Amino acid sequence: MAASLSFAAPAQAQSEPFIGQLMLTGANFCPRGWANAEGQLLPISSNSALFSLLGTTYGGDGESSFGLPDLRGRAPIGQGRGPGLADQRWGQRGGSESFTITEAQMPSHRHTAGLSVNALESNTNQPARSYPAVGPVGTNTYYRGTRPPYFMAADAFEIFPTGGNQSVNKRSPYLAMYWCIAMQGIYPSRS
């Protein structure tokens, strides 16, 4: 059985954008009628249609100026709450390029250490002026004499902290391009 696909009409790009529409461009500038979406403030008096759509969501005082979205170094996401995801409000900013893991965020783990020393053979059961030693189980075993060279002081062994508290980059692979916002065009109607 052969499958066939048919389309009612070929896809076409719209001839005039909607005011406030965003687009990416591979060029190093935004075309005429569009502005870089870089958070700049614009006068309301000469951009009233765009202001009526954006308001002060992206900045400005709402009296004489309003801001464009700033998409430099940011990825846009859909507003609302996706299944199992946090609610994202229109114009909300979030995220960071890197993070530092704190001790509280680390998984439970241990730093183990081993120590091997030569044991002192016991030669007395008197603890005065003696060192702990190895001898028969159940007896007080000590070594009396000059302190041997391999005797270890109580604070001679230490477990040192690890890590350098350096931040971790969490940015996905990317390609930087220009985001542009339509300043002129068709005023969008609500559907």
From TrEMBL:
InterPro entries: Phage_tail_collar_dom, Phage_tail_collar_dom_sf. Pfam families: Collar. Residues 20-76 form the Phage tail collar domain. This is Phage tail collar domain-containing protein.
